[in-house]
Amino acid sequence: MQVIIDEKEKQVIETGNHMPAVSIILPLNVIKSLEHETKLALKFALDKVKKQLFDNYPGERASLAINRLKDVISNIDYTLCKKSLAIFVSPVKEEVFYLDIPVEERIVINESFEIRDLIYNKKANQAVLVLLLSGEFARIYYAFGKTFKSVKIPVADNVFAYKTDMPERTGNFSDPPGHKEIMLNKFLHHIDIGLSGIIKQYNYPVFVLGAKRVLGHFKKITHHADKIVQFIHGNFFDVRENEILETVNSYLPVLQQQREKYFLHLLEEAAGKGVLVCGINNLWAEGNNKNIRLLIVEKDFNFPVWRGEGDDAIQEQAGSSDSFYFKDAVDDLMQKVLECGGDIEFTGNGVLGKYEGAAAILYHR
Q1: What is the mean pLDDT of the chain?
Q2: pTM, full prediction
């Protein structure tokens, strides 16, 4: 296969005049004025990049990188902005990704940008809901990566609010323990109703934390067992939020195992419908046809190829580490999938052995 190098790549290779590569990854606030907020966030990011470049590179190279980055930012199409924005500028490449996935802000200088890193960072840091329960109170939090913030429950979040709904007890025949159980169940029932609205809005997996007795009651009444990943016993109302987050993060492997089982189920279902493909050349062809709805790939699966003439077929090639001649076809495939509105999910290594490390569900056959 013939190796094709464009003039810009050739010039960089011959002169060795590499200017630093810059990656900016930004979450977007879709609630506020998107264009105004994004422009402000990009201004702050550009200021950070300027400082780092001038601190670590000669003035001429730093200025070249900054000017190129400014040009890219000036051409951002704010009508395409979704939940996040990723910008990459290198000596030979410019990329802008308008993504429908949550990310954490990140600025990286002098490292290559791989779409796999961006997507895997998001998927590994799975957003979840955390429901804290006691016999008297409830709290709900949104957790993503290092972010942990309170979510308003659309119902009363304490058991005392439901006391007035209880029938009056009479004389010596009252049953305080039974009365408390009724109040607790009524309270938990309303919290479950409130959870319905929050799940409808966020659609994230749920972890429920609390005393064993309270969680036992909640298990019996909840209508969201299919969304609950784990019930975790303990008193979490008296601990710091970072400790709660650490506890939840320690159970994320359980969530990943559940997700992998679900992905395998989706692939089997797609095979039955005739919309499943696997094998890198088949995937590449469908990616070029903009026909991949969901790509599922093992975390470290790659397919190194030479840069070749044409885009219809690829050929594996080992033995070179020169980034200008050598690339990973899987990373390029991921970019094609995102550009046509598809999604990407990851599994652990070895999970997709039956599918040669990667498989895709198509829009149509």
Answers
A1: 82
A2: 0.66
